[in-house]
Amino acid sequence: MEPGSGAAGERAGERSGPGEALLLGVRHHGPGSARAVRRALDAARPRTVLIEGPPEADELIPLAADENLRPPVALLAHAVDEPGRSAFWPMAEFSPEWVAIRWALEHGVPARFIDLPAAHTLAWQRETDEHPEPPGPPPGDGPGVGAGLRDDLRVDPLATLAEAAGHDDPERWWEDVVEHRGPGRRDPFAPFTAIEEAMTALRETYGAEGGEWDAVREAYMRLQLRAAQREFGDGAVAVVCGAWHVPALRRRTALTADRALLKGLPRTRTDLTWVPWTHRRLVRAGGYGAGIDSPGWYAHLLASPDRPVERWLTRVAGLLREEDRVVSPAHVIEAVRLAETLAALRGRPLPGLSETTDAMRAVLCEGSDVPLALIRDRLVVGDDMGEVPATAPAVPLQRDLDRLQRRLRLRPEAAERELELDLRKETDSERSRLLHRLRLLGVRWGEPAVSRGSTGTFRETWRLRWEPELSVRVAEAGVWGTTVPAAATARAEADAVAARGLAEVTGLAERCLLAGLPDALPTVMQVLADRAALDTDVGHLAQALPALVRSLRYGDVRGTDTGALAGVAAGLAERIFVGLPPACAALDADAADEMRRHVDAVHGAVGLLEEAVGPERGTGLHTRPHARLRDGWRAVLRVLSGRDSVAAVVRGRAARLLLDGGEVERDEAALLMGLALSRGTPPAEAAAWIEGFVGDGADGGLLLVHDERLLGLVDGWLTGVSAEAFTDVLPLLRRTFSAYETGVRRSLGELVRRGPGERSSVLGADSGTAGFADDLDAGRADAVLPVVRLLLGLDGEQLNDTDTDTDDQLTTVTT
Asked: 139: pLDDT confidence band, cut at 50, 70 and 90?
């Protein structure tokens, strides 16, 4: 039988009219539309199928027959000269366009895309970036029905049709009349006839054109339709497109008028390929999304034309059982009955997602929305991600990334997952380098996370999630090189030269070490040395030092030579030591608080610097050993703690760091606090000093809990503050003490309530230094010795063989 002949062909001819194409108006990503398209194509048997999409992708259509091309996928078009300028045309297995492509390939019928070429689409985007967006949805986006209405039209076509049919919910109406239609056997073209008549009436009522953008697209589609009719004959062409465009394609227009609309359109060179897509991305209405709410439900409707509700609720029951919820077959049966009853009460031909959800909430979830949220996340939306065969066109960088992903067994997945890496293992080390290199290139496949296990430098934790837009980021990064290491190296060198601040360059040096890019380090280090020599802002130097010192710690684990970094870090530290005291004078509150953070950062960096390179190793630039850097920093802290011109919050922080480091005794710390809280000190300045000294969370609170003298000084100062001044210092004090844990605040309140004498007995301070006993309490220390031994690894026989000297040492440590 020839295509288009027989009874089916006669019906198609009657429906389309002599010499007319079979126009199938659809809603993008609709399972009912997808089923109807397959039925219509089976009945009409056209000789060619034309599909709304970029014609440059015609050569990609045969790849849809590859078993390794699994939807959801998308056609990606990007400008060759501007890879970041791109557009997507998503397709799921329930998309009518995908069904039409698969039908054509299965029946040996040529398929073509007939929308405006991507070369014009991307160029149009570039020219309208500084102006309002063109009417209609972004390329490849939107629901299909109603896409293209002018911005000044306030009537939604679906809402108008639903209202005419007596429905107040346009989405539910569309599902009832199209998406939930059964297979049917009578007239496969009836739904498309009705949709075309409705859209024709809407366009006549609200405007024949949908704006300049749609007018141009529809003119191009008409030209392609005419060309196909000349090639294959009248009545042998089927067109699958958004329902809104059908009246425009049916309308007879002059060939010269259509060509005139297309004359002078901007264009740009483009590349197209298939890329994986995800159900979660289909949900998003903006950006590259498709704007549907329930892709998982739609996929289920297409895959389960018979008894869809029963099958769906069975899947839901299985999911809830996996989460240890009690769901029996009786629950499923009752939920099915309730969904069908609700559909009947609401006048629907089939229970939709709303009825099914109500039934699940009442029966399977016992009225709770918590398991319902899980069902929506896992099933209604889902984590389905498509696959693309290796034969699909791709930039060289994408090819190299695919190879690395296979070798390192890092498969891209739509669902977020955590990846724990042990950098002492070669495979994990390579995975870490790959993820860090991709971050340098702007391909944020993985985000560093806080490890739940060891915090050593040999462990890393990543959160991985592959998003479709990352394919665009890879295409963009292709300008830097053809392999991931080469591209990351070139990008790092360019970023170093273009960096605006010193901290940017030091952060980049750290990232280069993490990414294992030794070829980029010389350029980065040269820029770093130049910027460090010219930058005189102590704040900038203090921001740069911590990242630089952190980088030194990666040498042992990652096998990177960090000698040059050590020299630059030591030079930065010395310049900070010289410039920090004068930089801390005459600061307002915000600047003082920022400088306090710099002091904390430098304090930690100096300790890491000595730890990373050792006390006996020279810097290459300076002759004195690194251990002397710590001595220099201690001297700076002493200057900061005792100089009145330094901001109070910085003075308090310096005193606290000296106390924690054992550089001052508690008596001296109490003296510094007494001076800072004396009657001659303005209350606001005294409160700032307190914040600097004890405003570091639990540690500051515990210091006051266990040292009565310091607590008494704070208490005495606070009770002596006048009512007027107290109102001014209250916000600062509240910020300081609210950072403490609840238990610490409660303990402080109890100690203050009891008064000095009772506090001494509670804290065990009968005499001598307040808060501490004169003699060692050996009994209390002996009680924790077994635990300390276990922490030190002295278990089993070693516990019994521990000598008296060791016990004495442990006793001293515990007390």
From this structure: very low
Lowest average pLDDT, out of 25-29, 93-97, 118-122, 670-674, goes to: 670-674
Tokens of 57: 């992708």
- Rounded to whole angstroms, the Cα distance separating 721 from 714 reads 11
Instruction: Using alpha carbons, select from 562, 442, 443 the residue that is nearest to residue 510.
Output: 562
C-alpha–C-alpha distance, residues 414 and 92, integer Å: 15
Q: Which residues contact 393 (CB under 8 A, 6 or more apart)?
A: 60, 271, 272, 273
Amino acid at site 544: A
Distance linking the first and last C-alpha atoms of the chain: 98
Q: How far apart are CA 642 and CA 654, in angstroms?
A: 9
Q: Give residue 249's identity as a one-letter amino acid code.
A: L
Please tell me the distance from the alpha carbon of residue 60 to that of residue 547, in angstroms, as a whole number: 47
Order of strands across the sheet with 22-26?
22-26, 237-242, 48-51, 111-113
| Cβ neighbours around 151 below 10 Å, total | 11
Q: What is the DSSP string of 713-759?
A: HHHHHHHHS-HHHHHHHHHHHHHHHHTS-HHHHHHHHHHHHHHHHHH
Q: Between helices 723-738 and 683-694, what is the axis angle to 10°?
A: 10
Two tokens, residue 51: 């599909």
Joined together, the tokens standing for residue 125 give 């985007």
Task: Specify the range with the lowest mean pLDDT, choosing from 25-34, 72-81, 205-214.
Answer: 205-214
Give the residue with greater pLDDT, 630 vs 559: 630
Sheet order of strands, 73-79 included: 86-91, 73-79, 270-276
Q: How many CB atoms lie within 10 A of CB 610?
A: 18
Separation between Cα atoms, residue 605 and residue 615, nearest integer Å? 15
β strands within 180-229, DSSP E: none
Nearest residue to 73 (alpha-carbon basis) of 488, 385, 433, 471: 385
Are 343 and 350 in contact by the 8 Å Cβ rule? The answer is yes
Contact 15, 189 (CB under 8 A): yes
Kindly calculate the radius of gyration of the chain based on its CA atoms and give it in whole angstroms: 36
User: Does the CA dihedral 643-649-650-653 come out positive or negative?
Assistant: positive
Q: How far is CA 546 from the centre of its chain?
A: 26
CA atoms 791, 795, 799, 802: torsion sign: negative
Cβ pair 78, 270 in contact under 8 A: yes
Q: Tell me, what DSSP letter sits at residue 83?
A: T
**CB half-sphere exposure, 753, CA atoms < 13 A:** 6
Long-range contacts at 318-325 (CB < 8 A, ≥ 24 apart): 319/374, 319/375, 319/378, 319/379, 320/364, 320/365, 320/371, 320/374, 320/375, 323/371, 323/374, 325/371
Q: Are the C-beta atoms of residues 693 and 736 closer than 8 Å to each other?
A: no
Return d(Cα 511, Cα 608) in angstroms, integer: 18
How many Cα atoms occupy the beta-carbon half-sphere of 521 within 13 Å?
18
Q: What is the rounded distance in angstroms from the CA atom of residue 500 to the CA atom of residue 497?
A: 9
273 forms beta bridges with 76
Other Cβ atoms less than 10 A from the Cβ of 689: the count is: 26
Q: Is the pTM of this model over 0.85?
A: no
**Residue whose token pair is 């684990």:** 557
The answer to which of 206-215, 341-350, 736-745 has the lowest mean pLDDT is 206-215
The alpha carbon dihedral of 470, 471, 472, 476 has a sign of positive
Task: Please tell me the distance from the alpha carbon of residue 407 to that of residue 426, in angstroms, as a whole number.
Answer: 12
3-state DSSP assignment of residue 209: coil
Question: Taking the CB of residue 556, how many other CB atoms lie within 10 A of it?
Answer: 12
How confident is residue 180, by pLDDT bands cut at 50, 70 and 90?
low
pLDDT tens across 59-69, in order? 999 999 999 99
**What is the CB neighbour count within 10 angstroms for residue 206?**
16
Both structure tokens of 393: 């066109």
The answer to whether 122 and 56 are in contact (CB under 8 A) is: no
Spatial separation of the C-alpha atoms in residues 168 and 400, rounded to whole Å: 53
- Cβ atoms within 10 A of the Cβ of 1, count? 8
